[in-house]
Fold this sequence. Notes:
- The chain is mostly beta strands.
- The chain has one domain (90-322).
- The chain has one helix and ten strands; from the N terminus they run αββββββββββ.
- The strands form four sheets. The chain has a four-stranded antiparallel sheet, with no helix packed on it.
- The chain is rod-shaped.
Amino acid sequence: xxxxxxxxxxxxxxxxxxxxxxxxxxxxxxxxxxxxxxxxxxxxxxxxxxxxxxxxxxxxxxxxxxxxxxxxxxxxxxxxxxxxxxxxxxxxxxxxxxxxxxxxxxxxxxxxxxxxxxxxxxxxxxxxxxxxxxxxxxxxxxxxxxxxxxxxxxxxxxxxxxxxxxxxxxxxxxxxxxxxxxxxxxxxxxxxxxxxxxxxxxxxxxxxxxxxxxxxxxxxxxxxxxxxxxxxxxxxxxxxxxxxxxxxxxxxxxxxxxxxxxxxxxxxxxxxxxxxxxxxxxxxxxxxxxxxxxxxxxxxxxxxxxxxxxxxxxxxxxxxxx
Length: 322
């Protein structure tokens, strides 16, 4: 029969007491068949995880939230939804964006300004169309955005409703970051310019930019002005200029003749009274008295007298988080 031996320490002077609980039950404490040290509750709470060689740790001890087959453990000790965590919120009118909370860390913000409206002519005068709305975007850490953000979506510029009147300038789409990027907290895309008073200027609207709206009646496009390399010495030297000049992020310029409206890659296409300018990622410009399409297409203008100009397409804001 094996024996139990309790051996004191020759150098110590303390007295260790083994006390039983207040119980009427017979209990047995079985010692392991190995050499070691009995752990106290303090020892267990400070146990090094490298000493765990078998078994599993309860999921509730790993993180907060619900652990199941649809969640994963994040680095901030939270159980989050597994699979795709992309979150896309699109605004075709002003509203409030809400920050997602399923593990996303980055946000791509895309904005289009509203397209400019076309002018209206009398029976004896020419016609001028609206410029396309500008485009802007930025990618930032999600932490740069507050938990909720007010979103402003620019409206399309109104088409003229009286003879020889300018079309309206497209509205600005914008939002505000909680942390600045390159010194800026406001991210915006500006609207296209309206078609000009056909009785006096016969000049179309210019495309909107990232810092200002497109000019009305043949004025320069929205800033920043990007030189095209031409040498005409006037506003047509820039991307998105009035008179069918195309843009990349700028909206396309409106047309003042049978030429199509200016096209754009991201900004809205310019309007025309023949063929509206096209856009790869924005809205197309209107033709005749037709409205521009969203986001940011410039309004057309009719070659017939006493016909209202087309309104510009509304802007848009899209925030994609992942």
